[in-house]
Design a protein that fits this description.
heterodimer, A: mainly alpha, two-stranded antiparallel sheet, 10 helices, 69% helix, 7% strand, B: Immunoglobulin-like, 2 domains, 4-stranded antiparallel β-sheet, 6 helices
C-alpha cells in the first residue's frame, strides 16, 4: 500500500516505512540510543532526499526518546540536573548545526558532509567501544583482577565552574557537559540524529557518570534537542515531512518496546560490543561509498520544489 | 458516464462542420490532476480531430524550475561535488508524443523554432564562464537523469486513430510528477509544415490532506514544526502506556 509523502514529494510503501521504523526502534530499544544515526542513512537508501531524511529523522527521534525517557523516569534513572546543563549546550549546538546544514546545502556539499561526518564519527566511536567492551569481557574472565576506581582523574577535572551533580555522584566543571551538549546538538542539527551514540559513551568515559543514569539522562536531553532541531529544520530549510516522521514513529515505538525487553536479557559489555560492531559496519559502508567511483558522477538538484 | 464522456466528446468533434477553419481540434478530458495520499501516477486522455491526413505531435511541458547539475570528481581519495552548472527555468517535466519519429515529421529548424523534442530543448546555463563543451556535458547529464526518472520522455506511436481523423492519446504522468501549471501543445504537421496547432492548460496539484500539510508547512513553518514535535511526543507517550507496569 503506497502512501504519498507531501514534503518529500514521493510515494512510498507504508509497510516498508513501518518496517524500517520498527527495525531502527528495536535496535534503539536494545542499545538505549535514539537510532537516528541508522534511520537517516536508511531513508537516503530508499530514495528520500537527504534534506528531508535529516529533518524527518529528527522529528521521529523526538517521539522515540519520549517513549524511552518515560520508561527510565519511572525507574528514577534520570539525572535532571545534568540533563538541563547538557541541554543548554544542546540548544546552542542545534541552532549552529541547522545553520551549518543550510550553508553546506548552498555550497552543494551537504551530501558529502553528511556521509563524511557519519563515517568519521561512527568509525572512531565503534573502534573505541569495541576495544573497551572486549577489555571488559576479558576482565570478567579473570576474577580478582582488581577493583576499578569510581573514575579516573584527568586534566578535565581541573577546569573551572565546578558543579555538584548529586544523582550522578559527580563534582565536575559545568563546561564539560555544556560542551558535550553543544557537540551533540551540532550533530543533531546538521545530521538529524539524536546523538545518543555519541552522548552515551561520552557520559560514561568523559564525564564519568554511573552507567545506570546514562541512558535515561541522554534520552531526556535528546527529546529537547531533537525537538528544537525539528522546528529549526521546518523553519530554516522547509524539509520536514511530518507524515513520514509519524509513520516511522508508529513502527519505531513498537520496535523500541520490544527492543528494551530483549536488551534487558543481555549483559552490558556484550551489548556494547554488539553496538560497536553495528556502528563500525555502518561507518565502513559510508566510507566505502565515498571512495568508490560513482556510477554517475553527475547529480541533479531542482530548486524551488 | 465516465466511459460515455469521451465518446460524446468524439461525436462533438466529429460533428464540427467539415472544412471549418480549424484543421486540428483537440482537448484534454481533464485539466486537473490531483495528487492524493495513494498517488502512484496518472493518465490524462487527450482527444482530437484532424481535417485530413498528417502527423500529430503533442508536447507536454511542466513548470520551469532552476536545475543545478553537480559533477563529482576525486579529491584526496573522496568523491565530492566540484563543479556545477545551473539551468535556469528548465522545464521540470517535458514529454513529446508523436505519430512517427520526429526527424521524419519535421525538419530540424522547425523543431528548434517550436522547441519540440528533448534534443532541441532550450536550456540556458546561468554560469557565464563555462565552455560550450562543458555546458553540453552537464546538459546531457540533466537530460539523462530526468529521462531515467521518467520526467523527460519521448514516445512514438501510442495514438489511437479512429477512421483516420479522430484520435485519442493517454498522457501518462509518473508518481514523482512535479506540481504546478502545465501546458499541452498539439501540432498537426503535413508535408513538413505545421498546419494546425492548439494549446491546452493542465494543472497538477496536491489535494486533500497532503495538500493541506504541504500548504501549512510552507505558510506556517513554525506552527508546523511545533505541531510535528507535539504529535511525535504524544505518540511516544501513548506507546509507553501499555508497558507502564512492566
Amino acid at each position: 500500500m503506497d502512501i504519498y509523502l507531501p514534503i518529500a514529494a514521493m510515494s512510498q510503501d507504508v509497510f516498508v516505512l513501518l518496517a524500517l521504523g520498527g527495525a531502527v526502534g528495536f535496535l534503539s530499544g536494545v542499545f538505549g540510543v535514539g537510532g537516528g544515526f541508522l534511520l537517516t542513512p536508511l531513508l537516503i537508501v530508499i530514495g528520500v532526499p537527504h534534506t528531508v531524511a535529516v529533518a524527518s529523522s529528527a522529528n521521529q527521534v523526538v517521539g522515540a526518546s519520549v517513549s524511552g525517557a518515560l520508561a527510565h523516569w519511572r525507574r528514577g534513572n534520570i539525572d535532571f540536573q545534568m540533563g538541563i546543563v547538557l541541554l543548554a549546550g544542546g540548544f546552542a549546538g542545534s541552532a549552529a548545526g541547522v545553520w551549518l546544514f543550510a550553508m553546506l546545502r548552498r555550497m552543494g556539499q551537504i551530501d558529502l558532509a553528511i556521509s563524511l561526518a557519519y563515517a568519521l564519527l561512527l568509525g572512531t566511536l565503534g573502534t573505541l567501544m569495541l576495544a573497551e567492551s572486549t577489555r571488559a569481557m576479558l576482565r570478567l574472565r579473570r576474577p580478582g583482577a582488581g577493583r576499578r576506581k569510581l573514575h579516573q582523574h584527568t586534566w578535565l577535572h581541573g577546569l573551572p565552574l565546578k558543579m555538584r551533580f548529586r544523582r550522578s555522584k559527580l563534582y565536575i566543571s559545568a563546561l564539560l557537559p555544556l560542551s558535550l551538549g553543544f557537540v551533540v546538538g551540532l550533530l543533531s542539527g546538521a545530521m538529524g540524529l539524536g546523538g545518543g551514540f555519541v552522548m552515551v559513551p561520552a557520559m560514561i568515559y568523559l564525564l564519568g557518570m554511573p552507567t545506570a543514569t546514562v541512558p535515561g539522562t541522554s534520552l531526556f536531553q535528546i527529546i529537547f534537542v531533537s525537538a528544537s532541531v525539528t522546528v529549526l529544520q521546518a523553519v530554516e530549510n522547509g524539509a520536514l515531512d511530518a507524515v513520514l516522521a509519524l509513520v516511522l514513529l508508529v513502527g519505531g515505538v513498537l520496535g523500541a518496546q520490544l527492543g528494551t525487553r530483549f536488551g534487558a536479557r543481555l549483559r552490558g559489555e556484550q551489548l556494547r560490543a554488539l553496538l560497536a560492531l553495528l556502528v563500525l559496519a555502518v561507518a565502513a559502508k559510508l566510507a566505502f561509498d565515498l571512495t568508490v567511483r560513482p556510477a554517475d558522477p553527475f547529480t541533479l538538484e531542482t530548486l524551488g520544489e | 458516464m465516465r466511459r460515455a464522456l469521451p465518446l460524446l466528446l468524439l461525436l462533438l468533434l466529429w460533428s464540427a462542420p467539415a472544412g471549418a477553419a480549424e484543421p486540428l481540434v483537440a482537448d484534454l478530458t481533464s485539466h486537473f490532476v490531483a495528487i492524493t495520499t495513494g498517488f502512484t501516477g496518472a493518465d490524462v486522455v487527450l482527444f482530437g480531430a484532424t481535417d485530413g491526413p498528417g502527423d500529430v505531435v503533442v508536447v507536454v511541458r511542466g513548470p520551469g524550475r532552476d536545475a543545478v547539475v553537480w559533477r563529482k570528481s576525486r579529491v584526496a581519495g573522496v568523491w565530492m561535488n566540484t563543479r556545477q552548472v545551473t539551468f535556469a527555468g528548465a522545464p521540470s517535466y517535458y514529454a513529446v508524443y508523436s505519430t512517427r519519429p520526429l526527424d521524419e515529421i519535421m525538419p530540424p529548424a522547425m523543431r528548434l523554432l517550436n522547441d519540440i523534442g528533448i534534443a532541441d530543448l532550450r536550456l540556458a546555463a546561468a554560469e557565464k564562464d563555462r565552455s560550450p563543451q562543458e555546458i553540453a556535458e552537464f546538459r546531457d547529464a540533466l537530460i539523462r537523469q530526468r529521462r531515467q526518472a521518467a520526467l523527460y520522455a519521448e514516445a512514438v506511436g501510442g495514438f489511437n486513430f479512429l477512421g483516420g481523423e479522430l484520435f485519442h492519446l493517454a498522457l501518462g504522468f509518473p508518481a514523482a510528477v512535479p506540481t504546478g501549471n502545465y501546458t499541452v501543445q498539439i501540432f498537426l504537421v503535413r508535408d513538413k509544415r505545421v498546419v494546425g496547432g492548439q494549446t491546452s492548460p493542465l494543472y497538477i496539484s496536491q489535494a486533500g490532506i497532503d495538500a493541506e500539510v504541504d500548504d501549512f508547512a510552507e505558510r506556517r513553518a513554525l506552527s508546523y514544526g511545533l505541531l510535528a514535535v507535539a504529535g511525535a511526543a504524544l505518540v511516544g507517550w501513548l506507546s509507553s502506556l501499555p508497558f507502564r507496569h512492566a
